[in-house]
Automatic annotation (TrEMBL), chain A:
Organism domain of life: Bacteria
The family this protein is said to belong to: Belongs to the binding-protein-dependent transport system permease family.
Subcellular location: Cell membrane
Protein name: Carbohydrate ABC transporter membrane protein 2 (CUT1 family)
Source organism: Kineococcus rhizosphaerae
TrEMBL record, chain B:
TM spans (from-to): 33-60, 95-119, 131-152, 181-205, 226-247, 288-314
One of the GO BP terms on file: transmembrane transport
Region called Disordered, residue ranges: 1-22
PANTHER family: BLL4140 PROTEIN
Protein name (database record): Carbohydrate ABC transporter membrane protein 1 (CUT1 family)
GO-annotated cellular components: plasma membrane
Short name of one Pfam family: BPD_transp_1
């Protein structure tokens, strides 16, 4: 066990080789983002001629003001935030409620509900989009943020219900027995005891829903066809390319504006992101 | 209302005798009401926006329908006949399958390799690496799609500049050439979602107790042997689950494809979702019945693949039980 320093370094040498390899791969991995940030600060001419050079000659901050005001990304940001926050709130509430009774109570019809949920776990948006648009039109909700919010919170997250159900199922029975003896009713037991206990699950579901909604594209695209003011960031980006295919630096600035909040959130909460996704496999 | 409930003022579990049956009847009835009240938001939202559309698709696939505000005319299975007779539909089925075969093995196997390296506690900087490789997962797919158009631009995109630096002639339009577009799109897709599969594997690896590998090492097993005889058998159930999740994932490539190639060039990256989108939303005269028939076939296709995988899962679990 008393290896000399040299021997220890030698033993670790293969590891440093692996680290070097991983580092090269890591640079390739983040390169598109680095390039995007760099292009967002270059002049339109420099983007075309700079090749692989990362640091711009002059920092062209006006790309950002062009994207934010002229290309309307300020508006798209507001839409995206409203859409995402509302959808997360609705998904968390409805999945917690449904997961609680499905995980903790036996009742007639439970098996049917569970079977239907599992069977529709992987339904692709491409399959359901036409009836959703038709339905939203009849409810007078097409071309409105409310319509998007309802469609996204109604389509997303069977897995969230199943995660909640699994979590509530394993909580000890004594919890609600004690509360019931104290005279707490059904709703009180849920809101005062069960919901606070389920914070870790709520954090996971909220984060994953946040991610999915912020990045959603198909549904907001179709819902904002006839009203550009309803575009989200991802739809706005697509439209920007259609209208200004030569404004690379403006487009890169718009891309940074769109991606920055979600990347910042990820770096801030990365442990929960990773644990949340990992939990999906373990359970 | 602010009263805390946890410290029980009247404990005495002995008083918990069975309540009179009449009262219990009311209690369970009240409980049933609560249960259904809790289920209502999900029944309404999920019913309206997922279940109803699944059922309605079947009806829509049987009508002729040229726009959301126009009328529908029942035509029976004519739409299905037309879809199945359309070579472009079969081409999109083929492209969806080829895309899946390009993407799934790369994501599943290569990410296992990376996860095993990143799982070693002796690796320096492993948390930094995990963060970096996971980063593309959280970014907006539609925006990645647009950015990639420029990264792969044949005239002055950075990828071309890189190839020129290596001495290649350059000028290959990777996304604009129908021979290379699908493979390039698949590579971008693998890059984008590699981190999710890696995290799945990291979670799976965490379920393997370290003592097992150490015991194997003491018994004289090398790295490969301990992987072959200890890690791999224990990972087998996860391999199936991760394969199911990853394969289902590849059917949701609309965001990336639509923004990166729009299905082109010459329909060479037109996956089924883009085929549906084209007929329903971007045609000058929409064919919503026709698109619904394609959507129903797509739904059946996804379900068949899912059912096959579920069946594999059950068979594997059963054979595992027989072994032990």
């Amino acid at each position: 066990m008393n290896a000399t320093l040299g021997a220890r370094l030698l033993r670790r040498a293969p590891w440093w080789g692996v680290v070097l390899l991983l580092a090269v791969l890591a640079v390739v991995w983040v390169y598109p983002f680095v390039w995007m940030v760099s292009a967002s600060l270059k002049s339109s001419l420099e983007v075309f001629t700079a090749g692989l050079k990362i640091v711009p000659d002059d920092f062209a901050w006006e790309n950002y003001s062009r994207a934010w005001t002229d290309a309307n990304f300020g508006r798209y940001m507001v839409n995206t935030v409203i859409l995402t926050v509302s959808t997360v709130a609705i998904v968390v509430v409805r999945c917690a409620l449904a997961g609680y009774v499905l995980g903790r109570y036996g009742f007639r019809g439970k098996k049917v509900i569970l079977a239907v949920l599992v069977a529709t776990l992987f339904v692709p948006t491409g399959y359901t989009i036409i009836p959703i648009v038709k339905l939203s039109m009849e409810l007078n909700l097409l071309n409105s943020l409310t319509g998007m919010i309802l469609a996204l919170s109604g389509a997303a997250n069977v897995s969230a219900i199943l995660i909640y159900a699994g979590y509530f199922r394993q909580l000890p029975k004594e919890l609600e027995e004690a509360a019931t003896v104290d005279g707490a009713g059904f709703g009180r037991v849920f809101f005062r005891i069960m919901l606070p206990l389920s914070m870790p699950v709520t954090a996971t579901v909220a984060l994953l829903t946040f991610l999915a909604t912020w990045n959603a594209f198909f549904l907001p695209l179709v819902f904002s066809f006839s009203d550009p003011d309803l575009r989200t960031l991802s739809v706005g980006m697509q439209a920007f390319v259609g209208e200004n295919a030569t404004d690379w630096s403006g487009m890169a600035a718009a891309g940074v504006i769109s991606i920055l909040p979600i990347v910042a959130l990820f770096l801030f909460l990365q442990r929960y992101f990773v644990e949340g996704i990992a939990g999906a496999v373990k359970s | 209302m602010a009263r805390t409930i946890t410290p029980a003022p009247t404990p005495a579990p002995t008083t918990l005798t069975a309540p009179p049956t009449a009262k219990r009847g009311i209690d369970t009835r009240r409980q049933t009401i609560w249960i259904w009240a809790f289920l209502t938001p999900t029944l309404v939202l999920y019913g309206l926006y997922t279940l109803y559309p699944i059922v309605a698709s079947y009806w829509y696939s049987l009508v002729e329908w040229n726009g959301f505000s126009s009328g529908q005319r029942f035509v029976g299975i004519a739409n299905y006949r037309a879809v199945l007779a359309d070579p472009a539909f079969w081409s999109s089925v083929k492209i969806t399958l080829v895309f899946m075969l390009l993407v799934a093995p790369a994501r599943i196997l290569l990410s296992l390799l990376l996860a095993m390296v990143l799982n070693s506690p002796r690796l320096p900087l492993r948390n930094l690496f995990r963060t970096v490789y996971f980063l593309p997962v959280v970014t907006t797919t539609a925006i990645v799609g647009v950015v990639m158009q420029f990264v792969f631009d044949p005239a002055s995109g950075p990828f071309t500049a890189f190839l020129k630096m290596l001495g290649a002639k350059g000028g290959v339009d990777f996304l604009g050439d129908s021979g290379t577009a699908l493979v390039t799109a698949a590579a971008v897709y693998v890059w984008k979602f590699f981190g999710i599969t890696m995290v799945y594997w990291l979670a799976a690896l965490q379920t393997i107790p370290n003592e097992l590998n150490e015991a194997a090492r003491i018994d004289g097993a090398g790295a490969f042997q301990s992987f072959r005889y200890v890690t791999l058998p224990l990972l087998a159930p996860f391999l199936l689950i991760i394969t199911v999740l990853t394969v289902e994932d590849t059917f949701h490539a609309f965001d990336l494809m639509q923004t990166m190639t729009g299905g082109g060039p010459f329909f060479s990256t037109e996956i089924i979702e883009i085929y549906i989108y084209r007929w329903a939303f971007s045609a000058s005269i929409p064919q919503l019945g026709f698109a619904s028939a394609a959507a129903v076939l797509f739904g059946v296709f996804v379900m068949v693949v899912g059912a096959l995988q579920a069946w594999a899962l059950v068979v594997a679990r059963r054979s595992r039980k027989e072994l032990s």
